[in-house]
Every structure is written in C-alpha cells, then in structure tokens.
Amino acid sequence: MNTNRLSKTLESALNDQMTKEAHAAQIYLSYAAWADSQGCGGIANFLFRHSGEERNHMMKILEYILKRGGQVKVTAIPAPSADPKTINNCFEKIFEHEVENTKAIYRVAKMSHDEEDWATWNFMQWFVKEQTEEETLAMSLLDKIKIAGGDHADAASLYSLDRDLEKAPDDAPMAQDATAENPI
Ligand code: FEO
C-alpha cells in the first residue's frame, strides 16, 4: 500500500528546498565567520543566529516530508559563495540570496497549487510569510549600512551598527501586524 501523500515531483521539489535551506545556513555561517574576522562581533552574532534559523527551516521541510509519508534525501550542500568584500557587500549578498530563495519557495508553492495538493500549499504559506519577513530584514540591514555610509562607512558608524545588530531581533515586523495606533 502506498502511503506517500506527496507526488514524486513535489517530494523532489521539497527535498531540493530542504537542501537550499541547509545551503542558506552555510552561507550565513560563512558570512558570520567572515564578519567576526573583520572585528564585527555584533554583526557576526546576528548572522550566526540567522544561520540557526535557516537550519530550523531545513528541519521543518524534512519533518513535513516524513509526516506526509515521503522519502527524505539528504544530499551534499554546495559551498557558500566567496566572502563579501565589505559589510555593505555582505548585506547586499544577503538580500540577493533571500530574493533567490523567495523565488524558489514560490515555485514549490505554485507546484503544490497546480497539483491541488492543498496540504503542501498550506505548509508552504508559512515559508511565503517567512520570506516576506526575511526580505524585510535584509532590506533593513541595507538601510542601516546606507545610513552608516555604505561601502565608505567610517569606523565609528560601523562600530555603532555592530553594537546595534548584536541585540537586534531575529524577526522583522510584518505589515499585517500594523495598526493606526501602532504603525511599524
Ligand atoms: Fe530560509 Fe532565509 O530563508
């Protein structure tokens, strides 16, 4: 009796996305180590924490495949891209990476919609929301470094940004949580 509730196509797409999340964890891990080596311990702390979040995303997909009776395939994770050149470049690369990941999430969500696999479609909505948050977070990093001077940020501005990010929350506020009394 076949108890796999995932189509072969979706099972494969979910496994691919699971590996992408593991890859994202490695990217944040490598950028965090790079930031620390540049003397930016606060930014490194922020990125290390985010690497953990990406591992959590990987686990959610792994669990989902198992719970739907599918087969998990753990494969090699591609190496992260080259180290950033500057903190500004680091935040740019993070934003670009998150946009690419959003596109990948949308592809899986669309596949589940096309197959009328509403369980997977529902599961993927968590990731759609998460990507909106992640893009907002990445945009806020770019805003901060822009104010600090971008590629030409001086040591004092970078020091202040570094301290700021050490305590920065991991999640960005969402537009749907805004009210007239509490705009975000
Ligand atoms: Fe799991 Fe940053 O996306």
Tell me about this structure:
With 184 residues, this protein is mainly α. The protein has one domain (8-172): Ferritin, core subunit, four-helix bundle (Ferritin, Up-down Bundle). It is 70% helix and 0% strand. It contains 5 helices and no strands. Helix 1 runs antiparallel to helix 2 (41-67), helix 1 packs antiparallel against helix 3 (87-114) and helix 3 (87-114) packs antiparallel against helix 4 (118-148). The protein is globular, with a radius of gyration of 18 Å. The chain starts with 7 loop residues before the first helix and ends in an 18-residue tail after the last helix. The structure holds MU-OXO-diiron. MU-OXO-diiron is lined by residues 21, 24, 54, 57, 98, 101, 134.
Task: List the topology elements.
Elements: H1 8-37, H2 41-67, H3 87-114, H4 118-148, H5 155-166
Descriptors:
single chain, 184 residues, mainly alpha, Ferritin, globular, binds MU-OXO-diiron
Q: Quick gist of this model?
A:
The chain has one domain: Ferritin, core subunit, four-helix bundle (Ferritin).
Give the rounded overall mean pLDDT: 95
What is the total tally of β strands?
Answer: 0
Overall outline: globular
Q: Helix coverage percent of residues?
A: 55-70%
User: What's the structural domain tally?
Assistant: 1
Give the SSE order as H and E letters.
HHHHH
CATH topology: Ferritin
Bound molecules: MU-OXO-diiron
What is the CATH H-level superfamily?
A: Ferritin, core subunit, four-helix bundle
Provide the CATH top-level class.
Mainly Alpha
